[in-house]
Design brief:
Blueprint (H helix, E strand, L loop, with lengths): L15 H7 L11 H18 L11 H8 L4 E5 L4 E6 L2 E7 L5 E6 L5 E7 L6
Antiparallel strand pairs: 1-2, 2-3, 4-5
Length: 127
């Protein structure tokens, strides 16, 4: 998978972190936009799902890329320059805080590739 690169353009966009969530086409210097990251992450996600039917799989990336992937199914309710992100899935808050490292999300998919639930798990409780 391609590595995300780029430096936020704080001269042009002083509030770059928040802006990239609301504007899908804002790019980091020498980097990707939300739209591009989402496309890359979504393609990789469905490839992993397809190649690992009936198995548990792990996809690792950094918080912003994971956020952009989750936004396929979750509604962005808020984002702050403090790095807080608030996402909702089917009326349920999935996360409403600054991401931990690592942050773990469980995405449940039915046999027709419908995302039926997204859970935010505590890393310490994973077996």
């Amino acid at each position: 998978m391609k590595e995300c690169t780029g430096t936020p353009d704080y001269d042009k966009y002083p509030n770059f972190f928040c802006l990239q969530y609301w504007n899908k086409d804002v790019k980091a210097l020498d980097g990707e936009s939300q739209r591009e990251v989402n496309k890359r992450m979504t393609e990789a996600f469905w490839e992993v799902v397809e190649n690992n039917r009936n198995k548990k799989s792990i996809i690792c990336s950094h918080g912003t890329s994971i956020s952009f992937l989750l936004m396929n199914w979750c509604k962005l309710l808020d984002v702050k320059h403090t790095l807080l992100r608030k996402l909702e899935f089917k009326g349920k808050i999935v996360i409403n805080r600054v991401f931990k490292s690592p942050e773990v999300f469980k995405i449940l998919i039915d046999h027709k590739n419908n995302v039926i639930d997204i859970l935010n798990l505590d890393f310490e409780e994973i077996e």
